[in-house]
Amino acid sequence: MDINPFLLVQEFGNLGRNLLIHILVWSVFLDIVTGFVRSWIVGRNIDSTVGLKGLAKHFLMLLIILIVYPYLEIAHLHQIGVGVAVFYIAFYGLSIVENLGQLGLPLPPVVKERFEKLKKKKEETK
What we know:
With 126 residues, the chain is mostly helical. 82% of the residues lie in helices and 0% in strands.
């Protein structure tokens, strides 16, 4: 498949108008902020090495998606790009809710039950 460089530049420009990409970037940002606040309030040691490693992981994930998404659009694989973006939005959304729950903010009973089940499964696998 031959890729038109002008079309590629146009698709990269379209990222700024893509609602899913905006939601994903904000989800990553909120996860980083809520995770930092949780670590600070819960009293965990805030280690610069661990923090830097986490930031690098988030940054690289975003970078990969921001690079691959325009190519998927050009290749008419829009659904795959949307699927990947939605997966990561959900992943980060769960992490944000978990951070908020550990901060002591009230969560609906259904959400609390789900996280308790996940915690139990995690403890059973140890």
